[in-house]
C-alpha cells in the first residue's frame, strides 16, 4: 500500500490522478495518495479487520470485489503542515469535498457520492461503481491487467468538463439514513418484506440482489442510477423467490394458484391463446414472470 503501488494502477487512472494533482496545486491544495492496488492477501487482511482481527471495519467486500483489486481505484488525503511545519495527512471534510468535485470534473468517480460515504476513494468510472462488470468480463484482475494496451498507456488526454451534475448517491451495504428508508420502501413495493429502518444490512442487500436479478441488471447489491430507475417502474404482479425455478414452482413460491386452469388463464392474458403446458410455453411465462413483465389475467 505504499506509493510505489501507484505505478500498478490502470494507466488512464494514473494520468487522471496526475492531472488531479496539478489542478489541486492551482487551488493551493496538496494531495497525496495512499491505498492503490490491493492483492488478494491485502484485501482479505483488510476485510478481516473488525471481524476476526482487532480494529474497526474498513471494508465491506472481499477479494476481488473491491475496485482496488482491479487497479482502477486510489485513495487520497490532504497534506497540511502541523505546528512544527511538518507535512501531515489530513482528512478534513470540506477540503476532501473540494478535491472530490475537482476529481469529478476530470472524469474520475468519487466515493463521496456513495452511501456509506468513502471520501478518500477515487476511481475510473468506466465500469460502474463496483467491479461487477469487470468480474463478468475478465474473471480475474490478472486477466484484466493483461488486457491493458500500449495505447491506453500512452493516452494522456483529459478533457475537463464544464459542470458536474449532482450525482445520485450510490447505496450499498452499510449505508444508513433516509435514502435507505426510501430504498427499502421501494423494494417492498416490488415485493420485498423489509423493515423500513434505514439500515442497509444483509436483508436489504439480498432484496436488492434479488430485484436486480429479476430485472436483468448487474447483480452487485449496489444501488445506483440504473437500479433506482428500475425501482421507479411499475412493480411486477408476482414476486418469485428464485430465478432458477420452472413456471409452476415460481407460481407456487409466490402462492399463486398453479393449477392448469389458472396457468391457462395467465397464458391467455400473455399472448399464448392455446396454452398446452409445454416446456416452451412454461419457459416463456416463467421468463415474463421473473422479469416482472407477466400481465395479470
Ligand atoms: Zn478506496
Estimated structural class: alpha+beta
Shape: elongated
| Rg result | 23 Å
The number of distinct β-strands equals 7
Overall pLDDT:
84
Order of helices and strands: HEHEEHEEEHHHEHHHHHH
Q: Give the count of helical stretches.
A: 12
| Number of structural domains | 3
Q: How can the largest sheet be summarized?
A: 5 strands, antiparallel
Which ligands, by name, code or SMILES, are bound?
zinc ion
Report on this model:
It contains twelve helices and seven strands. The chain has helices at residues 11-26, 40-48, 93-105, 132-138, 141-146, 150-154, 178-189, 202-214, 225-232, 247-253, 260-269, 279-290, and strands at residues 31-33, 73-81, 87-90, 109-110, 114-115, 121-123, 170-171. The longest helix is centred in the first third of the chain and has 16 residues, at 11-26. It starts with 10 loop residues before the first helix and ends in a 7-residue tail after the last helix. Helices cover 40% and strands 8% of the residues. The radius of gyration is 23 Å and the shape is elongated. By secondary structure, it is α+β, with helices and mostly antiparallel strands. The protein has three domains: 3-154, Muramoyl-pentapeptide Carboxypeptidase, domain 2 (2-Layer Sandwich); 170-232, PGBD-like superfamily/PGBD (Muramoyl-pentapeptide Carboxypeptidase, domain 1), CATH 1.10.101; 247-290, no CATH class. The strands form two sheets. Strands 1, 2, 3, 4 and 6 form a five-stranded antiparallel beta sheet that branches. A two-stranded parallel sheet has the order 5-7.
Amino acid at each position: 500500500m505504499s506509493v510505489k503501488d501507484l505505478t500498478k494502477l490502470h494507466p488512464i487512472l494514473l494520468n487522471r490522478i496526475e492531472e488531479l494533482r496539478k489542478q489541486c496545486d492551482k487551488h493551493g491544495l496538496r494531495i497525496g495518495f495512499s491505498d492503490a492496488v490491493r492483492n488478494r492477501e491485502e484485501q482479505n487482511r483488510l476485510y478481516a479487520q473488525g471481524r476476526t482481527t482487532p480494529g474497526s471495519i474498513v471494508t465491506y467486500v472481499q477479494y476481488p470485489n473491491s475496485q482496488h483489486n482491479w487497479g482502477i481505484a486510489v485513495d487520497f488525503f490532504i497534506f497540511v503542515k502541523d505546528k512544527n511545519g511538518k507535512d501531515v495527512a489530513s482528512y478534513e471534510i470540506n477540503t476532501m469535498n473540494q478535491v472530490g468535485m475537482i476529481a469529478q470534473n476530470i472524469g474520475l468517480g468519487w466515493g463521496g457520492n456513495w452511501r456509506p460515504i468513502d471520501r478518500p476513494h477515487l476511481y475510473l468510472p468506466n465500469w460502474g461503481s463496483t467491479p461487477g462488470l469487470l468480474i463478468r468480463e475478465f474473471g480475474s484482475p490478472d486477466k484484466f491487467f493483461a488486457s491493458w494496451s500500449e495505447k491506453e498507456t500512452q493516452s494522456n488526454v483529459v478533457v475537463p468538463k464544464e459542470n458536474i451534475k449532482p450525482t445520485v448517491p450510490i447505496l450499498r451495504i452499510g449505508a444508513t439514513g433516509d435514502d435507505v428508508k426510501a430504498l427499502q420502501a421501494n423494494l417492498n413495493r416490488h415485493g420485498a418484506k423489509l423493515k423500513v429502518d434505514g439500515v442497509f444490512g444483509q436483508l436489504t442487500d439480498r432484496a436488492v440482489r434479488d430485484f436486480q436479478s429479476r430485472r436483468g441488471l448487474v447483480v452487485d447489491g449496489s444501488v445506483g442510477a440504473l437500479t433506482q430507475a428500475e425501482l421507479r417502474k411499475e412493480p411486477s404482479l408476482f414476486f418469485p423467490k428464485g430465478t432458477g425455478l420452472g413456471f409452476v414452482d415460481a407460481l407456487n413460491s409466490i402462492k399463486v394458484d398453479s393449477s392448469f386452469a389458472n396457468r391457462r388463464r395467465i397464458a391467455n392474458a400473455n399472448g399464448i391463446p392455446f396454452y398446452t403446458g409445454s416446456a416452451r410455453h412454461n419457459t416463456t411465462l416463467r421468463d415474463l414472470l421473473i422479469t416482472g413483465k407477466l400481465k395479470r389475467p
